[in-house]
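Morning, I've got a small favour to ask if you have a moment. I've dropped the whole record in just underneath, so have a look.
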Amino acid sequence: MNRRHWLTHVTGLLVASALPFRVSAASKFPLNKSKAEWQRLLPPAAYTVLFEEGTEPSGSSPLNGEKRAGTFICAACNLPLFDSAHKYESGTGWPSFWQPLAGAVGTSTDFKLIYPRTEYHCSRCGGHQGHVFNDGPKPTGKRYCNNGVALRFVVQGEALPELRT
């Protein structure tokens, strides 16, 4: 590969990493709210992670140590995302799961760190949850590394809150 060809590819990757790769939640997901509406409904840290695709500091979420039976739901719209039976200790400092509930999350590619990563989000409201990696336990080999502030936990036997509309 010559220098010009290499520079063209590197420039293309840099330009691609600066482009928004997600369509706005209002046009892509079943639950449509403006960013202003989400800001009014959510605590600032949750809003930043869910709708600005932020990341909470490692080790900051009490949900990382949650060991009871129950369901982890989207902090924005209350959609059930993960069964506690699929949670495991990844050593990363974030709640990690080897499998989401069927149909609960969608994925997209993000280039924020220049190289591609698989971001996953709530399939109902589009709220950013985290990233999925291929270094998890069997049977899936996946690690859904979740921001705790993007989740709420409902203990098994308690009623799930109604889906937020």
